[in-house]
Design brief:
mainly alpha, globular, 1% strand
């Protein structure tokens, strides 16, 4: 199965596309407090694809996405001229750095959509299957065999690292992100796979990906699953019934694992989860400030008001690049596929993922997949 995702029809073997997605797990390994191993690796991917992408081949889609990242650069330059704040520029750098890598790689595939796009998509799906299978293995190993398949991501990780804990996290609850530090990080990476696998009729892979999201017990993962069921299965009652029945059976067999899930899905500010800090509190702070920045503001001023402030990606882009930057960002996120758009919007509203490649690489697949003129026919390549 793994070979299938890296094999061309001509019999050639390409590990590059699989590594492009699998190496996002190096976001977990920190070289310093704010520098991950992925920050070192992915610029080399960008350089490689940049050298393979002559500007003479630019088409409408690749030129459009290139203009977006240039727009963010112009906003950051104007902010530095107007506010003369190095701290503001540094806070914007992480986003621009990752966005540039994303755009350079996306531009290559948008120029080569007829042949290499299907291989890129297949590589992503199979890496999602691999990560999901490991999550399922960890979950069943812990709850059935009482054995914790854990590993340590190393130093600079902070207090919360579910996959490296010797004992269950959150008291009696064991949650794992598999190859990822957090279940929500796994869900962010997996989100687009539901729509893409469904449209390509990869039914077995789709089932494994759904099970991986369920066993991760990520509330965001369940939001993705519910959105997928509502949009794609609402007119197929027998599949919808089988899908809901399977979730109920898993919940009945492993009730302890999902004890806090439904509290999380309600976004109850008093529930034992991080949704209040990630979603509700930041929006309340902005509502209190009553400021709509045109080109951005110094987000360090926000942290002076609330030292524990968590800025999700939506509010980070809005605060750092203003309403103009937010519009540019939403232009990337909104896809022809309703489900992909919903999943990506859920992601940026709930998670602060702008600094991680496990967000930008699934976004890469979504944009390349949806920008192809034959994106619904790619399963026939």
């Amino acid at each position: 199965m793994i070979l299938d995702c890296i094999r061309y029809k001509k019999g050639e073997y390409k590990v590059l596309f699989c590594l492009l997605f699998y190496l996002v797990i190096f976001e977990n390994f920190r070289l310093a407090q704010n520098v991950s191993l992925a920050d070192v690796i992915y610029p080399f991917f960008a350089i490689y694809f940049f050298l393979k992408s002559p500007f003479s081949k630019d088409n409408k889609n690749s030129s459009y996405i290139l203009l977006i990242v240039l727009g963010f650069g112009v906003i950051a330059f104007l902010d530095f001229l107007f506010f003369n704040s190095m701290n503001m520029l540094l806070s914007q750098f992480r986003f621009i750095f990752n966005c540039t890598i994303f755009v350079v790689i996306a531009r290559y595939f948008l120029q080569n959509e007829n042949y290499e796009v299907p291989q890129l998509i297949d590589s992503y799906i199979y890496i999602c299957v691999l990560c999901s299978m490991f999550i399922i293995l960890q979950f069943l190993s812990f709850y059935l065999l009482h054995f914790n398949l854990a590993f340590d991501f190393g130093a600079y990780q902070g207090a919360i690292n579910h996959a490296s804990l010797e004992t269950p996290s959150f008291g009696s609850l064991y949650r794992t992100g598999g190859f990822f530090k957090e279940p929500s990080w796994f869900a962010v990476f997996m989100g687009p796979s539901l729509e893409i696998a469904y449209q390509r009729k990869y039914n077995k892979q789709l089932i494994i990906c759904i099970l991986g999201l369920i066993f991760s017990t990520s509330s965001m993962g369940f939001l993705f699953i519910f959105a997928f069921a509502f949009i794609n299965l609402k007119n197929q009652r027998k599949y919808l019934f089988a899908f809901l029945l399977s979730i109920c059976i898993i919940y009945i067999i492993f009730p302890m694992a999902f004890s806090r899930l439904f509290d999380a899905l309600t976004f109850d500010p008093h529930a034992d989860n991080s949704n209040n800090a990630r979603v509700i509190s930041p929006f309340l702070l902005f509502a209190h400030i009553k400021q709509i920045p045109i080109l951005g503001m110094d987000i360090n001023l926000l942290y002076l008001q609330d030292k524990n402030l968590f800025l999700n990606t939506f509010l980070f882009v809005f605060a750092s690049f203003g309403i103009i930057g937010l519009i540019l960002f939403l232009k990337i996120l909104l896809q022809p596929s309703r489900l992909l758009s919903i999943i990506l919007l859920f992601t940026i509203i709930i998670e602060g993922c702008y600094g991680r490649m496990d967000f930008w690489m699934p976004l890469l697949v979504s944009v390349v997949y949806s920008s192809s003129p034959n994106y619904l026919k790619l399963r026939n390549f």
